[in-house]
Amino acid sequence: MRTVSVEELQHIESLIRSCPLCYVGMADEQGVPYVLPMNFGYEEEVIYLHSAQEGRSISILGKNPQVCITFCTEPRLVWQDKEVACSYRMRAESVICHGNVSFEEEYDEKVKALDIIMQQYSDRAFSYSAPAVKNVKIWKVPIDKVTAKEFGVPGTKANLYKDRKVF
Ligand SMILES: Cc1cc2nc3c(=O)[nH]c(=O)nc-3n(C[C@H](O)[C@H](O)[C@H](O)COP(=O)(O)OP(=O)(O)OC[C@H]3O[C@@H](n4cnc5c(N)ncnc54)[C@H](O)[C@@H]3O)c2cc1C
Question: pTM score > 0.85 for this model?
């Protein structure tokens, strides 16, 4: 694997930012996978997530903080010949990130993370009540490894970012 260029990194970041949600995969002590759809924020090679203080995901992450987070752009159905089933494709790009979750406990850092998450969904500035900030669990995932892949494009452009390590 090689490190991708700044242009490729910027493209991957734009893919992440274009997604409304992500899928967070984790594995419990027995290796049983558990994947959750979640909202997110992204800034400077870190994915931010938020949740309740307790639940199955929190229990799993307490034992194994490794996660695999997948993003997929809005897919579009394309075809070369409308009559031929095997010429149909889904055109989309997807990104897979690996990293370890740490929970942010510091109040001001939690507010910063909430701002980053809200910026993914709105241009507005928000304020948060102190109890809401205290009650929310903030997940920080510095990205250790990322790959991206393009689908549904005929020819050599497909798989443009396959198996390239970025961070
Ligand atoms: C579009 C979307 C965005 C979301 N964004 C967030 C977010 O930003 N933060 C957040 O905390 N949650 C979010 N959720 C909900 C999230 O997917 C989980 O349901 C939630 O985090 C609770 O997870 P838990 O492990 O604590 O579940 P628990 O409450 O411990 O769940 C108990 C059991 O319920 C089942 N279960 C839990 N979640 C789901 C699910 N999503 N679908 C089907 N079965 C389930 C599992 O089998 C689990 O063992 C989102 C859901 C959707 C659909």
Answer: yes
Q: Separation of 95 CA from ligand 1 center, angstroms? A: 21
Quote the ligand 1 centre to 36 CA distance (angstroms): 6
Q: Residue 149 corresponds to which tokens in the numbers above? A: 């892949």
If one residue of 19, 28, 36 were mutated to test the ligand 1 pocket, choosing by the most ligand atoms within 8 A of its CB, it would be: 36
For the chain, the structural domain boundaries read 6-151
Length in residues, the chain: 167
Which element (helix H / strand E) includes 145?
strand 137-151
CB distance 50 to ligand 1 below 6 Å? yes
At 62, give phi and psi (nearest 5°).
-60, -30
Q: What is the pLDDT of residues 83-128, one digit of tens each?
A: 999 988 899 999 999 999 999 999 999 999 999 999 999 999 999 9
Residue 50 CA: nearest ligand 1 atom is 9
Q: Which CATH architecture has domain 6-151?
A: Roll (2.30)
